[in-house]
Amino acid sequence: MGKLKTIARRTFLIGSAAIAGGVAFGVYKYKTPYANPLLDNLAEGEAALTPYVKIDASGITLITPRADSGQGAYSVQAILIAEELDVELDQINVDPGMPDKVYYNTALGADGAPFAPTDDSFAANSTRTVMDSLMKFLGMQVTGGSTTVPDSYEKLRLAGAVARETLKAAASQQTGIAVSELKTANGMVETPDGTKISYQDLAGIAATLDPVDGVALRDPSTWRIVGKPHQRLDTLAKSTGTQEYGIDFKRDGMVHAMVRTNPRRGGEMISYDDTETKAMRGVQNVLPITGGLAVIADNTWRAIQAANALEIEWGDAPYPAEMDAHWQALSDSFNDDQQDSRMRDDGDVTAALEGAEVVEAEYRAPYLAHAPLEPISAVVEVSKDRVDVWTGTQIPRFLQGNVADITGVDFDNVYIHALMMGGSFGHRLEARVVKEATEIAVQMPGVPVKLTYSREEDLSHNDTRQIAMARGRGTIKDGKVEAFDLSIAMPSVIASQMSRQGLSVPGPDTQIVAGAWEQPLAIPNYRVTGYRAPELAPISSWRSVGASTNGFFHDVFLDELIVAAGADQMEERLRLCWHEPSRKVLEKVAEMSNWGAPLAANKGRGVAFCMSFGVAVAEVIEVTNTDDGIKLDNVWAAAEVGKVVDPVMFENMVQGGINWALGHAIISEITYSDGMTEQENFDTFESLRMYQSPKIEVVGLENGDHVRGIGEPMVPPAAAALSNAIFAATGQRIREMPMNKFIDFV
Amino acid sequence: MKLTVNGTQHEVDVEPDMPLLWVLRDELGITGPKYGCGIAQCGACTVHMDGEPVKSCQIAAEDIDGEIVTIEGLGTPDALHAVQSAWIEHQVAQCGYCQSGQMMTAAAFVLETPAPTDSEIDDAMSGNLCRCGTYPRIRAAVKTAAKNLSEGA
User: Fold this and answer.
1) For residue A197, what is the domain's CATH number?
2) pLDDT of residue A138
3) Domain range for A515
4) How do residues B22-35 score in pLDDT, each as one tens digit?
5) Which pLDDT does position A23 carry in this prediction?
6) Sheet harboring A695-701: ordered strands across?
7) Using CA atoms, how far apart are residues A75 and A56, in angstroms rounded to an integer?
8) Same domain membership, residue A649 and residue A505
């Protein structure tokens, strides 16, 4: 660093400096005990001031530590940094960087606090601050919970602003012109006489300066980039087949692996015969891994064929072998001993139900697979003092720990190289493929091992969405909803998920009631109780987690009460809703769908509302009851997110999320028989196809005080709106998914 | 055995039953065609064989009959095919993993159907799964591609 500093100070290199190294900017250096990780990998003459902006001879690189599974995380992070840095999106590169504590998620903790998102009380905000400190302490670099935008919204703009002001300070030092006289645009500092100095030419000096402190963020009215439509950074690559995904990654000398483990998840391997496998072309070895075997071959297909040729006797599953017993376990969980939480208890529900005519209903939601279209894979190379892992992941720092535990290599010498994911939906919150690839690679030091799951292995070993059941009891009075009592039973997703990381989480699991208890409704007698079912098959966070089932239960039951009351479904929801930004989304979809306009006799319209992840979403669905079954015609959706960072990405995410929810609601489930999933591929695990996809109109509203993410919140109300629409069209009430068990769809 | 992919002739030494998908991906390093299911359910592996869209996971090496074109041969970032331009214009992709297959199916379809209706598009495209649910954008992009192709012709 010293040499460049000397040169820069001596010579005023305007617009012509040859950069030996580079400079990296970030933010929060003055607020955090964590060092800037970019400092570790800089050569002589390079410098790094913050963890998010790196400028060197190759250009301007924005570090985007939140993982991209197709939701556009890299692009949205780049937009936020670029806004204040004064660079254009076609001038920059993005790099997820290496995992580091400094990239902990500042929004995940706040969402974990047991307060409704509409609660801005001192107690709620104090707890959120404590939760944030915990996330920081743990260095929780996690992508999930629709937190990328809320986590990044201020932090990354500040990172851009600090870098920009530091570059201006460098320009001031170089030219002798006061900082207040300098402007920035297009990756350059401009002096009053119009001279432009590129950021790259200022990197050398900037490297010698402390980052400028106390930078104010710009007023949103001046924004050039945030809120405007852009071409996503990966659109060109993904439109030309040139995007590299994890499954495409290669290393010289790499071998291909495929595993077989017990399809009765967690059961043992009793015996095996690998004679046929070992004789197959391209097979190099058969190696043991935890709970099964790995076949090593010279290409992916041969590895899959050879693994399938293994003859293995498997032991029993540690959970019930048949579905009836899973449902029975849920049904048996509605008791005081298994009560997990009662976070909503307004009025006097018990008194209101007593002696009244009670509306009762029971609801069910099945296990579901994540099944991103890219089967998961990982490349692991174990060297003497380090391990390198190339994979798509939402939990890079957990993976570092998992790999360190298996190999005995220091945590800090485990390098996780994040690759683009062909979808995730929560699947990549799990570590199994990386753990197994590491167990293989340890047995083959120096050789890069690529483990690619077959679709069958991926789907039959998916840590699925939770199975869930709910019971509603309610009353009406004078044409209004008077009492609403919803009891929900499911196993704990968080307990199951964290157990695979060796962690136990104390206290109630708020996911058991998420998407139900925190609804901003002023029902006079209103109670939501969560019951913790025993652990059954392994489950994990599936797009919108607890709310994916509870949004369906809560709003369909509400619809049943409104029907019983003889009220209009839209008007009664509006009457009950006390939260103004939430009322606005209902009013918006009423307007978009022309709610109340007459429909043909064979058509029906349903509305549903759900607040999840702090986002109020209302959806109206219109269906036609045709001779061939129910046809999904139109969906209108409105979501309150505080700020739409990019309207194109927003629209695409909402449309996709609604299709995700509707497809699973009508045709998808994972079931167990003999302890194994009965679905192993897309012939039996059916998925929405184009002819089933409705027209979807989307509006993002910006009336709220909080900026939120939209990756998940559009999912929970969709199945409810569909059930409500089918009831309106046919008079048949569907209380269980998948709905095609009860009614035909086109 | 010999095969021609994107205008280039290759010779590979593989089992007769190795699927074309894996010949392309693992033997030739052509990774635009994707593995999604291996049983002709998802369409991520779609390529053209003599101009016809086929699911390359279902074509055994010994049955390869005709010139193969993959997404890389359809067009490139510097010389886009009309379908690729439309995919960019409508920003179809989310994860993008299925989109190579979607575009290969669409490219063959729009040549035969210059002014497609929604239901014709649905019929042609429903063999290609998109787990991200980008179907509304695919529909719009197919229409744009068909329009641009027929106007350019």
Assistant:
1) 3.30.365.10
2) 77
3) 323-368+464-741
4) 999 999 999 999 99
5) 55
6) A603-612, A615-626, A629-640, A695-701
7) 21
8) yes
